[in-house]
Amino acid sequence: MTIDILMPYYGDPGQLQEAVKSVLAQRDPDWRLVVLDDCYPHWEAEPWVTGIDDPRVVFERNPRNLGVSGSFDRSIDLAAADYLVIMGCDDRMLPDYIGTVRRAIERFDRPEFVQPGVRIIDEHGAASHPLVDRVKGWVRPRVPAGGALLGGEPVMTTLLRGDWSYFPSICWRRDVLAKHRFSPEYEITLDLVLKTDILLEGGRLALLPEVVFEYRRHAASASSYTAKDGSRFDEERAFYRSAEPRLRAKGWPRAARAARIRLTSRLNALSKLPGALLSRDGSAIRTLARYAFAR
Questions:
Q1: Which of 95, 101, 91, 78 is nearest to 32 (CA)?
Q2: Can you spell out the DSSP letters for 223-270?
Q3: C-alpha span between 205 and 38 (Å, rounded)
C-alpha cells in the first residue's frame, strides 16, 4: 500500500531539502512524494526537485498562489493513494515513519487518521522543548506500546482542551479528506476544524507512541507570527463558538464544555500578554486580553 506525501512549499530552501531527504531515507520504500510549489517568489524549487533521480518524487506548481488552505485542498486532489500526509516543507520524517504508519493502518482496520509520536526541533534542527509543546505532552492521551484506536467524545474533549496533535505528521485517509476538505474561513485552526468534523461523524484516530516525525517549531511559522499580534485568537474564538452548539446537539456535553472554556487556548493568550505589554502594542494587548478573559 503506497502512502502519498504532499509537501506544499513556501519556505526556506535548505529546510525543504532536509524535508525531502528525510522522505528519501525512509526504510519502507512504498511511498510517493509530491512537492507542490505555491508560486513561492524567493527560490525556484523545480530544478532541484526534478533533478532527484527517483521516479517516486514529483514536482507540481500551483497555477497561482493559493495560500495555506488552497494548497492543502489541491494536495488532496493530487493524491492518488488511499492514505496521504500533508507534510510541512520544514519538517522531517524519521526513517521508520512510513513503515510505522502503514502497520497502524493495517492493525486498526483503516482508521480515518493516524497520529504518530512527534519530536520537536528548532530552526537549526536541534531538539527543542517549548512551553506550548510541553503542554501538548501533558494533555495528550496516554496509549500502550502498540498504540490505541480513539474516537467519540473522550478524544474530542482532549483535543478541545488543548490540541495536542501535529497536523504535518498526521496520515489521513484520502476519501475522508476529499469529503470534508479544508475551510477557506480558517488558516491557523483549519486542522482542528477538520478533526472535529471527522470525529463528529464517527471517525477514528489511531494514536501511536512511537516517535517517527520531527516537527519544526520556530518564530517564522505562520502560527507564531499571528499569535504575537493576537489575530490567531480571533480565529480560535470563532471556531470554538461554532463548535459548541454542534457538540451539544451531538450529545457530547463534556466536549461542548471544553469548547466553551477553551482553557489552554486562553492560557496561551495570557502567555503572549507580557510581550505585547513590553512592546506597547495596544491592538495586540486588547485582542489578547479580550480573548483570555471574555466569553
A1: 78
A2: HHHHHHHTHHHHHHHHHHHHHHHHHHHHT-HHHHHHHHH-HHHHHHHH
A3: 29
Contacts of residue 139, defined as CB under 8 A and 6 or more positions apart, other chains included, come to: 158, 161, 162, 164, 264
Give the per-residue pLDDT at 80. 98
E-strand stretches of the chain: 3-9, 31-37, 57-61, 83-86, 92-93, 113-121, 148-151, 171-173, 204-216
Tens digit of pLDDT for each residue in 65-124?
A: 998 899 999 999 999 999 999 999 999 999 999 999 999 999 999 999 999 999 999 999
Query: CA quadruple 169, 171, 176, 179: dihedral positive or negative?
Result: positive
CA–centroid distance for 189 within its chain: 9
Report which DSSP code applies to 184.
Answer: T
The overall pTM is greater than 0.85: yes
